[in-house]
Write a structure and sequence with these properties.
- The chain has 226 residues and is of the alpha/beta class.
- It has one domain: P-loop containing nucleotide triphosphate hydrolases (Rossmann fold).
- 35% of the residues lie in helices and 29% in strands.
- It is built from 7 helices and 10 strands.
- A 6-stranded mixed beta sheet has the order 6-7-8-3-9-10, sandwiched between helices.
- The longest helix has 18 residues.
- It starts with a strand and ends with a strand.
Length: 226
């Protein structure tokens, strides 16, 4: 088991009452799965993704990552284990405007104290894999939306995470660019065994997964196996 949530709930206090963002979530994620999370606005999709990615805490329940209890970890250990296991892809790309494509992709390796020669080799390899060698000295503002998202995915993959967590990864792209990104995810999942959990409102994007989790009002309404 890669990830496991047991009766996980998250709430905020509104006028003295609990407003649940997530309620009694039970979820098992196995290595190599491709999962889509769907639901109407406000159903808890991004909150669930953030809890899984350890970007957000929960109030109640348990979370196990590789059979290790996340809830009992100290913050330093949490940060370390998140870096080792997760790559994040966002709708808004979150590239650093002042850095070139090369520097953006290299950034996660700097935090992991990877040697200069190894960084060069890893970045060169991923630039080649994504066919963006010719863009390496450009800045994000000089790229199309699809190219920026490719750089975002390359950056997420550079440290070889076990899981890619993607929040509306094609939300700002046209349909052709969006399809290219989804094909890339499918390839990463099938050929390299990267587990992928994506939040999407697009039924066609969701269908790339092997399992769809439908959320409603913070609870899992149903799980659909494809």
């Amino acid at each position: 088991m890669l990830l496991q949530l047991k009766n996980a709930s998250k709430w905020v206090h509104v006028g003295g009452n609990k407003a649940f963002l997530l309620k009694d979530i039970n979820l098992n994620v196995f290595e190599g799965e491709f999962i889509s999370i769907m639901g109407p606005s406000g159903s808890g999709k991004t909150t669930l993704l953030n809890v899984l990615g350890m970007l957000d805490d929960f109030n109640e329940g348990q979370y196990f990552l590789n059979d290790e209890n996340v809830g009992s970890m100290k913050d330093k250990r949490k940060a370390q284990i998140a870096k080792e296991n997760f790559g994040y892809v966002f709708q808004a790309y979150h590239l650093i405007d002042e850095l070139t494509v090369y520097e953006n992709i290299e950034t996660p390796l700097l935090y992991q104290k990877v040697s200069s020669s190894e960084r060069k080799a890893l970045v060169a390899d991923i630039l080649d894999k994504f066919n963006i060698v010719g863009k390496k000295d450009l800045f994000p503002s000089q790229l199309s939306g699809g190219q920026q998202q490719l750089v975002g995915i390359a950056r997420a993959l550079i440290s070889k995470p076990k899981v890619i967590l993607a929040d509306e990864p094609t939300g700002n792209l046209n349909s052709r660019q969006g399809e290219e990104i989804m094909q890339l995810f499918k390839k990463l999942n099938e050929e390299e065994g990267v587990s992928i959990i994506q939040v999407t409102h697009s039924e066609s994007n969701a269908a790339y997964a092997s399992k769809i989790i439908h959320l409603l009002d913070g609870s899992i309404e149903k799980i659909e196996n494809l």
